[in-house]
Amino acid sequence: MGLGDLWNRVRGVGNLTKDWTRDTRMKLAIDFDALSFCGVKLGEPIELLSSLGPSGNAHQEDASIFDYPDRGFAVGAADGKLVDITAFVTKDAKRRPFGGEFLKSGEAIKLTPETPADEIRSIFGEPTGRAAGDTGESILFYGRKVAEWVFSWEGKLLVSVELLRQLEYTDASGRPKKGSS
Fold first, then answer.
1. Which terminus of the chain is more exposed, N or C, with fewer CB under 10 A?
2. pLDDT value for 171
3. CA–CA dist 124, 139 (Å, integer)
4. Three-state secondary structure call for residue 22
């Protein structure tokens, strides 16, 4: 924590999640088909996730990424809308793994650190893109015009799953722009 973060905490200012109240009954779920997190679709108001409670970085002013390391996920906002959901599958020194569900075609799918790329391809089909890094990272992209699913590995460990709203193809309300599908 930097001095600015400490000063914001002392002054009681921070991002919009600082006043959110956590509801422990809220079911954590990423639905790939509905493009949603906890029932809130990409492009909908981020405040609809207020039952998540304050983020781990609630003391940071003007944050656009709300990090929940104790629950293994982060959500991103732009213009007050949900635009990004990242579930961390692999535990590390800074965070626990995501404790919610992943849904595809209405069914729960199990994604663990040991989930190989071949299994992702069997569930989601062939990716629209791939990337590989020099140090063993690999990524599978599944793009639609309004959203993209991103699966990231470090070596053989599935590290994260991300659902991103494609801002260039959606209007301010999160609906596809004319001519987008």
1. C
2. 47
3. 14
4. coil
